[in-house]
Specification:
eight-stranded parallel beta sheet, 223 residues, 7 helices, single chain
């Protein structure tokens, strides 16, 4: 799997979002991660489909939309219509996660499932043959800038092992939460492919150097 760096716009300057997106794009970002929070599933609120639509107007990079909301099915089509390339749904947010994944794929975009730090991989194992990505939260979801939960690397490693043992499981492993120059190598070595980074990238004078550093650390750790 190829290493992909995904800046999280949750840490961008919302008053200068286009500027920050362009800076990250020029720095070598592979895709952008957009968190949509409703204040119910997680104790915070963030972006709406209109922000996805605005992002689509200023970048051609893939838009990776992470739904931290209750009743995710109601938002899937509006977000696809806004220009999302991938939609990620929390396993904990719905009793019908398979239906949600099927709805996403029926609309022609990539589908992914998200697991919180305390959610066992066994609860989503049946989805492995039908998903494009699985996002392992390495912090408790809802806020940016949190400290990386170190034992999540064991979960990533178990997930990678499960992926390798099944011929029809070719999903990418994504990590989100506390990803920086001190944690990315551990995640990459464990088997992660997509790395969501927020506060480590945005608001920094050397964003190009930081993207390059993250990529180099991840590539080296995978070798």
């Amino acid at each position: 799997m190829t290493v992909k760096i995904a800046p999280s716009i949750l840490s961008a300057d919302i008053m200068n979002l286009e500027r920050d997106v362009k800076l990250a794009e020029q720095a070598g970002a592979d895709l952008f991660h957009i968190d949509i929070m409703d204040g119910h599933f997680v104790p915070n609120m963030s972006f709406s489909p209109s922000v996805v639509a605005g992002m689509r107007q200023v970048t051609d990079k893939p838009l990776d939309v992470h739904l931290m909301i209750e009743n995710p099915d109601a938002y899937i089509k509006p977000i696809v219509d806004a220009g999302a390339d991938t939609i990620l749904v929390h396993a904990e947010s719905t009793q019908h996660i398979y239906r949600s994944i099927d709805l996403i794929k029926s609309l022609g975009v990539k589908a992914g499932v998200v697991v919180n730090p305390g959610t066992p991989l066994e609860t989503v194992k049946e989805l492995f043959p039908v998903i494009d990505q699985i996002l392992v939260m390495t912090v408790n979801p809802g806020f940016g800038g949190q400290k990386f939960i170190t034992n999540m690397t064991k979960k990533i490693q178990r997930l990678d092992q499960l992926r390798q043992t099944a011929a029809d499981d070719d999903f990418e492993i994504e990590v989100d939460g506390g990803v920086n120059n001190e944690t990315i190598a551990k995640c990459a070595h464990a088997g992660a492919d997509i790395f969501v980074a927020g506060s480590y990238l945005f608001g920094q004078n050397d964003i190009t150097e930081r993207v390059d550093n993250l990529r180099s650390l991840a590539v080296n750790a995978k070798q």
